[in-house]
Amino acid sequence: MVxxxxxxMHRIFQDHPDLFSGVSKVLGVDxxxxxxxxxxxxxxxxxxxxxxxxDTLLRLExxxxxxxxxxxxxxxxxxxxxxxSWAYYASYLLTKYRLQPMLLVVCQxxxxxxxxxxxxxxxxxxxxLLTLRPLVAGxxxxxxxxxxxxxxxxxxxxxxxxxxxxxxxxIGTILKAVTTVLRDEPDAVKNPVIEFIxxxxxxLPAAAFWRTLVAVDLSFYKSPLIEEVREEARLEGRAEDILxxxxxxxxxxxEAVRERITTCDDLExxxxxxxxxxxxxxADAIFSDD
Length: 290
Description:
Elements: H1 4-15, H2 19-26, E1 34-39, E2 56-62, E3 68-75, H3 82-97, E4 100-107, H4 110-116, E5 120-122, E6 130-132, E7 135-137, H5 148-153, H6 155-164, H7 171-182, H8 187-201, H9 205-217, H10 224-249, H11 255-262, H12 267-277
Parallel strand pairs: 3-4, 4-7
Antiparallel strand pairs: 1-2, 2-3, 5-6
């Protein structure tokens, strides 16, 4: 199953395709800013049963009059099979579109990023046929954007910075700088940023801090994230009410029962259990009619 951080690391380039030019400059490679962008099909499957899909594929028209195909891959861990797949993507794209392909790999941890950026040669050692050299963006080379003034200069790059530095000890400062800037942005700008960072942080510890910042610092009344935060708060509150009833009534709550109550994600079921908790003689009896 594709994870939320995986999706955020490459889909941000779909919303902000000019981000590729900014990232490439950070990585020391100068590509002209795009004058127009086309989101290309990501299905690279051939007639054979083997299916191949690149995460994001963009066609960038530039001032140099040389269109560029940029394949963007989000990589969560080392995978010895990936370099061969990436080489296939490059040769397939060149063959199909007759345009020069580029590969950008986005990572969230140093080890994966350093592995991904190592050149890989294909062919006999005495005469390598192909050399794969992807651009790699990760915590080892993406800027730590902690100053709101810097966030304001390039919000898309700051968003990617937050995602790639999700495991950094300084992630809290980065996230705080982003929310400081987002206070002054319209919903059309800030809500997508909120969602990208939320997905990018996934289940990492920084995700809880981000959700707190969103709830406290900002007023995202229409944001899916804030609605999710509110729903979780309602669920946690109702689950706690059930456990308090048992505590007041002196009824022991086995660990299995406690876990089932606290992990339930259906508010109506929790309401039913709460009503039953007032009258049942044992904790597990609240589940009797489910």
